Amino acid sequence: MTSRILVKNLAAREDGPVTVSGWVETVRDQKKVQFVVLRDESGDVQLVHPRAAAPATEVVETSGDVPVGVSVTDDVAETISSLTLGSFVTVTGELKHDERVKLGGIEVKIDSLTVESYAHPELPIAADSALDKRLDYRFIDLRQKRNNLIFRIQTTLEHAWRTWWIDNGYIEVHTPTFMATPSESRAELFQLDYFDLGTAYLAQSPQHFKQMAQAAGLGKVFAITPVFRADPSFTSRHATEYTSVDAELSWIDSHDDVMAMQEQLLVAGLTAVEEKHGDEIREAFGIEVEVPAAPFPRIPLAEAHEIVEKRGYKVPREDGDLDPEGERQIAAYVKETYGHDFVFLTDYPLSIRPFYHMVDEQTGLTKSYDLIYNGVEITTGAQREHRLDVLEAQAVKKGLELEGLESYLDFFRYGIPPHGGFGMGLARVLMQLLGEQSIREVTYLFRGPTRLKP
Amino acid sequence: MTSRILVKNLAAREDGPVTVSGWVETVRDQKKVQFVVLRDESGDVQLVHPRAAAPATEVVETSGDVPVGVSVTDDVAETISSLTLGSFVTVTGELKHDERVKLGGIEVKIDSLTVESYAHPELPIAADSALDKRLDYRFIDLRQKRNNLIFRIQTTLEHAWRTWWIDNGYIEVHTPTFMATPSESRAELFQLDYFDLGTAYLAQSPQHFKQMAQAAGLGKVFAITPVFRADPSFTSRHATEYTSVDAELSWIDSHDDVMAMQEQLLVAGLTAVEEKHGDEIREAFGIEVEVPAAPFPRIPLAEAHEIVEKRGYKVPREDGDLDPEGERQIAAYVKETYGHDFVFLTDYPLSIRPFYHMVDEQTGLTKSYDLIYNGVEITTGAQREHRLDVLEAQAVKKGLELEGLESYLDFFRYGIPPHGGFGMGLARVLMQLLGEQSIREVTYLFRGPTRLKP
Predict the structure, then answer these.
(1) Membrane-crossing residues (chains A, B) (predicted)?
(2) C-beta neighbour count of B155 within 10 angstroms
């Protein structure tokens, strides 16, 4: 390995020889002195090269998109003058602490500079380019410090979730993408030719396969997996392909047990994010990470409608569900009333839930919930109907043909415990955590109806 | 939550009241006493019900595939007689330690028994059914203790890998499945209609997107993701959809740096598996988990050919690669010579490597490797060519059209550091770790050219 030092670790070092590697953020090519700001994945540092004092130094150019006549020059100054923004370089020099340097109070005086790869002279985007343009060049866009931070936060969040699950006896499963039968609604499914077996569908959730784990006696499982939706949705909250964070567990009494698990999980995840990145998030996003207190507020859907209406908003949907503005309204109410960023909305009618949700005999409503985070739905969870006769009746009531569900219904024929779980959109959590306006900002490579590249 | 106690935790408890939940493995319905072996995800326990001594006890049947005339009976004995194998039940009773009980020296005297879900009277498979038949009913097959153990091992292994990576500054990325352009060989790609954008392809590896992370300055990344191969391969080592474990890192000097990382990663993973599951693996698989010593042996491919030939095996392939028997032979040599389960084969000619591998100027061979584990290839790794002009020349030399590669080549136009990485088949590692004969045994839900269900 190149014995480079991460930029973030320079400040703590004593003055002396160092090697740093990264890309060129800015060049100030002055007559007497040259300045380069070099960035790596951990931060920015100022490099300095006093022209007059520059000795003949070896400079090796290993690549180039820029026409280069000579591949080796002995002049550091000349090479610095040739640097295009975004070029990747390795620099060896003398680290010096100097309070006058605005950028972190340190600079590196260049002894030698190796250009590993020249960038094309014109970078096609800047930090303030339009989102869609930035996504065209996501590989440049991700060089922004805040974007780099987003994916370090994602890594921390997921790892904290996995650790919590594993500490609590959950098994991680890799549910398949290819399915022989459509899972819920044919209209939202991608399909393709699958050898001699006819059509395969791409899973729009790991639902079937994590329920299968319950019949298989695995007890408690989680899955973090890509899922696919073929409906042409263009909102800031939808993607054609996204990462779904799912859990399913046996021997629950109701959806209350699922909510109790999910809120512990979220507390563990946000605690880890706050501890590891709280300061960086404050600096880059101007946001204080709030670790929620458990239990989160719980409000039955019917009551939520009343509350929202009292606030002067009439939900225009006819089906009884909340719309996005309704979700923002109930979240605002909860924030004002309980000071909480999260709220579980519970007890949805079966008419707006999939057939496999369990109906509570007392209320006639499903044992299910949505979880709203800072005004946006991030999760649907439920106890599932595990009694085959009831499940079939509910499917028929929904107008589904049992024939198409055989592969799923098989899971219930040979014994299955009571169970439930939830699915959570990873990007939605990140979007709400960081106060972003679109999941496109917090998805590594967004895929939508009009975006399939890069 | 049901306040059930996991079976594995019973032995450590004092005699007294307990609740256990699981499924029925066996019933011995004798005249004077009834025995049930109940299994949950953690183990087996014997339940006992002395008929004569049985008081009238509440029994609730909540579901059933079996025709049931009466939904409530007051007779535990009658319900036990009705139990079908695989039915899920919750039992409350008295735990008693008794050395005479072969199954763990404990039993539970049943006070009440609730049937949560009756299994169909005929289970379609047994532990010794043919593999393909077992896979048809994977949700029953996974109830086997050794199968349950496989996925707990997988969970531990992956978590140890992720933890090692994260402790070493790696970022986890979710690379997309949908691609606008074919990545390597069109013949192996699934394709489908993608809105108005024409054809989308399913990624056969996260290769492009983890390299993109290097241009994006993320430094070190890993991805654990499903990938898709449309070639009709029927060997015990291939699947149509499988989980790929990938890493990619910047600022390497050569593939040596990638190997050094991978061997540390594998040591961390296997150490965790040995510590957490060593005893269970010995019991269920008759295998001692060997934590390898680093560095692993490294043998250039040409030398490997000589060694294999000296052992009396002539590789029949014309292209210079080893075949599976050749891999077994070199592994046997390494085991005999160095006592090691792993061997890196290095320095493959470009003719049998993808165009994006870097060629060493001295040797004319690629800076790449395969990793063989107990005789099976589990990984290909390499330093990538990051110099655009060289990369394009290599693509052309391979007969590829640059036009189809534009989206990939774009990553190299705006600066990119030297980098490399590897891809590793999760199921292959598990297969070799546990001495299994097929990845189908260690894949949660196998997908192959003739298998798309369940």
Answers:
(1) none
(2) 20
Contacts of B404 (CB under 8 A, 6+ apart): B181, B182
Residue B53 has pLDDT above 80, yes or no: no
Contact A21 B64 (CB under 8 A): no
The reply to whether B411 falls in a domain is yes
Task: Specify the pLDDT at position B184.
Answer: 63
- Chain centroid to CA A123: how far? 26
B171 and B289 assigned to the same domain: yes
- Looking at this predicted complex, what is its ipTM? 0.94
Backbone angles phi, psi at B359, to 5 degrees: -95, 135
Rounded to the nearest 10 degrees, how much is the dihedral formed by the CA atoms of A357, A361, A362, A365? 20
Q: Clarify whether residues B148 and B284 are in a common domain.
A: yes
Mean pLDDT over B410-414 rounds to 97
Q: Under an 8 A CB cutoff, do A1 and B253 touch?
A: yes
Using a CB-CB cut-off of 8 Å, the residues of chain B touching A176 are 226, 241, 444-445, 447
Quick one: pLDDT at residue B299?
98
Interface contact A414-B119, CB threshold 8 A:
yes
Q: How many residues are there in chain B?
A: 454
Closest in A140, A197, A218 to B151, CB measured? A218
- Per-residue pLDDT at B191 exceeds 80: yes
User: Which domain does A431 fall in, by range?
Assistant: 138-442
Mean pLDDT of chain A: 94
Tens digit of each residue's pLDDT (9 = 90 or more) over B192-204? 999 999 999 999 9
**Which segments of B are annotated as binding site for L-aspartate?**
184, 229, 380, 384
Taking the CA of residue B313 and the nearest CA in chain A, the distance in Å comes to 36
* A320 shares its domain with A358: yes
- B428 and B291 share one domain: yes
Q: In this complex, do B1 and A253 lie within 8 Å of one another by their Cβ atoms?
A: yes
Give me the long-range contacts of B264-269 (CB less than 8 A, separation at least 24). B264/B164, B264/B294, B265/B161, B265/B164, B265/B165, B266/B292, B266/B342, B267/B291, B267/B292, B267/B293, B267/B294, B268/B160, B268/B161, B268/B163, B268/B164, B269/B157, B269/B158, B269/B160, B269/B161, B269/B164
**Number of structural domains in chain B:** 2
Cβ–Cβ below 8 Å for A447 and B152: no
Q: Is A445's CB within 8 Å of B209's CB? A: yes
Judge if B170 and B70 occupy the same domain: no
Find, in chain B, the residue whose alpha carbon is nearest to that of A454: B407
Looking at residue A185, its amino acid is S
pLDDT, position A51: 86
Q: Is residue A403 part of a domain?
A: yes
What is the DSSP pairing of strand A419-425 with strand A376-383?
antiparallel
The C-alpha atoms of residue B346 and residue B369 are separated, in whole angstroms, by 4
pLDDT greater than 50 at residue B435 = yes
As given in the structure block, the two tokens for residue A160 are: 């904290």
- Does residue A356 surpass a pLDDT of 60? yes
**Burial (CB count within 10 angstroms: exposed 0-12, middle 13-18, buried 19+), residue B336:** exposed
Residues B44 and B148 in one domain: no
pLDDT at position A60: 54
CB contact under 8 A, B117 and A413: no
- Predicted pLDDT of residue B175: 98
Chain B CB contacts of A163 under 8 Å are 159
* Min distance B222 CA to chain A CA atoms (Å): 10
Interface test with A, best of B9, B40, B66, B174 (most A CBs within 10 A): B174
The overall average pLDDT reported for chain B is: 94
Which tens digits make up the pLDDT trace of B138-148? 999 999 999 99
Size of interface A-B (CB pairs under 8 A): 308
Interval A321-348: pLDDT, tens: 999 999 999 999 999 999 999 999 999 9
On chain B, the residues whose CB falls within 8 A of the CB of A250 are: 21
